[in-house]
Amino acid sequence: QVQLVESGGGLVQSGGSLKLSCAASGYILRINAMAWYRQAPGKQRELVARIDRGDSADYADSVKGRFTISRDNTKTTLYLEMNSLEPEDTAVYYCNADTRTQNYWGQGTQVTVSS
User: What parts of the chain have a pLDDT lower than 70?
Assistant: First the structure.
């Protein structure tokens, strides 16, 4: 089992910044990749950014150049630094861990960007 706990969400004005954190515990050595997803009201959950074992990162086109995904040296905490936030970024942000055989999700953290 892998447990994920997100933090760092909140209310920010358009153009502002937030940094999300996701603390992983449990069978963390089995984690192949980690990612941030988001789900806005009335929309499907979408991939925002993903980082693999070798720290290679991929981003959704909508956040490229504005968001940065990273992990700490122990690979137990995942981050998402979000800059130049737009109202369209408003959503619940979820942390995800992939062990190849199973996907784990955090409880989500709300990010609201006001115009």
Answer: none
